[in-house]
Amino acid sequence: MRLAAPGSSGTIGVGVENLSITYQRGRKEILALDRISVEVRQGELLVLLGPSGCGKSTLLNAVAGLLKPDEGRITIAGREVFGSKGLINVPPNGRNLGMIFQAYSLWPHMTARENVAFPLKRRGFAQRDLLPTVNAALDLVRCGPLADQYPGQLSGGQQQRVALARAIVAEPAVLLFDEPLSNLDANLRRQLRDEIAGLHNRLEFSGIYVTHDQAEALSLGTSVAVMTTARIEQIGTPQEVHNSPVSEYVAWFLGANVFDATVDSRGTVDTPFGALSSEKTIAKGPARVAIYPERLRIEPAKAGTATITLVQYKGTAVEYSVQAGNASVNVVTITSEEPLAIGDRVNVSALSRDVLVFADRGNDTTTAAVGEPGQTNGRSVGP
Ligand code: ADP
Ligand code: MG
Q1: 94 — phi, psi (to 5°)?
Q2: Please, where in the chain does CATH 3.40.50.300 lie?
Q3: Can you point out the beta strands (E) in 44-111?
């Protein structure tokens, strides 16, 4: 089984240009996508990462043809499937794609094998090739022995594997994933995540993968697009978005501590935790600093600038909450030594390359709720 056409690397798997979508809720209009453009190259797995309500599913459903955009253009494997001012709008089953959703979506009255055979039958696949192809797809997701079971007899993880087999069996041009692991428990989630990464390495499919989980995004994506309400804030390799975030929002959503600081005329960053230096130079004045918990160091000191307020033992690491003035940060240390205790005083430091500084734009993007009131914002669903 091979999902990437030979010699097709470098071509565009999915192209999205200037896509806008508004929802009507009563008399209110909700702009769910604001002129989004993004490209998925052949063989690339693009992860859309962002808090609940930012528009991830809307974008995915538009690519799938389940939603009609207001304007813009979508291509799949070079073919226009939506565009020309809405005159072209290929229905979902004509778009040559496979989809895996969060909710287990197998047909309950069909066995695993019949579920996987369905896309092939619909395409009029030759009967004599049907069984070997279906079995190969089931084997690929290690569900061969479960072929004759009904979905009700399978665990959640097994159902998602079968759904994966059903999505890839017809060798579609593009695979779309909408939070496929969100309903699974932590261990299974990790295991299936590794398997999807393995499948991507072997089959080199082009895909778009939606998640609100930063660890999932960084480990699965060949590119990661970090979204905020209705738009993409940054797109790059996992390393680029993690190590060179373009804004405090991106750093924060990827798990960084963010706090206020002041940059003086010599470029020193004055923070509640003491003076830090940064490789990034920004104009003097109020600033925001972002530092990942794993990149902060703490040193016990009698006259330290900060105080330990919480100690959480994590097995191989210890996570501390550390406070100075009204700023609080998380610090993750990997240490075999006796952990520090609540109330201990410490000095806080970081390497200059790990101190990410941003001009203070006056609006704290890291606490602004995204989506509807009562919906979880990035803080609670993110890191
Ligand atoms: P995500 O997948 O990132 O959680 P969605 O794409 O589902 O976000 O939603 C984006 C925004 O559009 C949210 O504000 C959501 O409430 C709104 N929305 C989504 N679907 C509908 C709909 N069918 N009708 C009205 N508003 C919707
Ligand atoms: Mg969604």
Answers
A1: -100, 5
A2: 12-239
A3: 45-49, 71-76, 79-83, 88-89, 97-100
32 lines ligand 1 (CB under 6 A): yes
Q: Does the beta carbon of 53 sit less than 6 angstroms from any atom of ligand 1?
A: yes
pTM for the whole thing?
0.91
CATH of domain 259-370: 2.40.50.140
Whether residue 123 contacts residue 170, with contact meaning beta carbons closer than 8 Å, is answered with: yes
Distance in Å, CA 31 to ligand 1 centroid: 9
From 54, 101, 177, 228, mutation site for ligand 1 pocket: most ligand atoms within 8 A of C-beta: 54
Can you give the pLDDT of all 383 residues of the chain as single tens digits? 666 655 555 689 999 999 999 999 999 999 999 999 999 999 999 999 999 999 999 999 999 999 999 999 999 999 999 997 778 999 999 999 999 998 888 999 999 999 999 999 988 888 888 999 999 999 999 999 999 999 999 999 999 999 999 999 999 999 999 999 999 999 999 999 999 999 999 999 999 999 999 999 999 999 999 999 999 999 999 999 999 999 999 999 999 999 999 999 888 999 999 999 999 888 899 999 999 999 999 999 999 999 999 999 988 899 999 999 999 999 999 876 778 999 999 999 999 999 999 998 776 666 544 433 333 333 333 33
Q: Check if 54 has its Cβ closer than 6 Å to any atom of ligand 1.
A: yes
Mutate-to-test residue for ligand 1 from 58, 213, 227, highest number of ligand atoms within 8 A of CB: 58
Helix, strand, coil content of the chain in percent (nearest 5): 25, 35, 40
The rounded distance, in Å, linking the Cα atoms of 300 and 297 is 10
Q: Indicate if ligand 1 lies below 6 Å from the C-beta of 182.
A: no
CATH number of 12-239: 3.40.50.300
375 lines ligand 1 (CB under 6 A): no
What residue owns the CA closest to ligand 1's atom 22? Answer: 23
Distance 52 CA to ligand 2 centre (A): 6
Q: In what order do the strands lie in the sheet with 306-313?
A: 297-300, 345-349, 306-313, 318-324, 327-333
CATH 2.40.50.140 domain range(s) in the chain:
259-370
